[in-house]
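A student in our group prepared the protein record below, which I am reviewing. This is what I was given:
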Amino acid sequence: MQRNTLRASFLFVALLSLSACNVFHSFASPGNDEAYIEEARACLHSQNYACAVENYSKVTNEALKNEKLCIVSIARSGINLTALVSIITGQNVGAELPGQLAEAMLPFTEEKLAAASESPTYCNALPTATAEEAQTAGLLQSLAYLSQCAIRLARTDTLVSVSANASQTDCNSTTAGNGDGRITDSDISFDGTGVLGPGVPGICDADIFICQQAIANAGSLAGSSGSADLIENINALPAAFQGPIISAARAEMLAMIPAD
């Protein structure tokens, strides 16, 4: 228990420092950048994410701008700091990491989906020249990719698919989900087989393709994140989920869903 508490406190400090206002003193930024950052911080305080993005986008220092936009895009996808630390460092999270993140991101919105989809663009532009920069980049990039998958699990509470679709990008979830504010096995694969059909809904094929790539990316980046909990939980995800048969991958996703 003490080990988990210490690991949680270290992760909390790391994430808190990343979201602080003037933590990036290593970046030389012009005076106007300071004003944009202060204005963006005020926007974030009122959860006006569009305003925060607008101001951070005006920062002229590219490294600083991308770091701030990376952080705000993860937050905009629906994952707050407290939930992140609680989930990542929780006891026996393991393979349920994506599902627990998904529940924390509810209710699903298209705005959250857009934010999660764009977050790797900013996070992947972070510098990695020093050990500290590499650790910061590894942590944020891993979280960005996990949020990409988690928001698609969250979508199933609102919309599900009832037919296969070979597209790797266009989700055909047009059937209403049960909207109970939870992510359960029946949201992902109604009968547990992974096969879709009329009366047998589940997560769409395109979202599975995206989740497969996102989790693979998170796994390759987590090693440099400095978070033993994050690495441990990602390593617990079912390897068979990455298989080429989408119906089988959908069935494997059930291991990611929190137990009732």
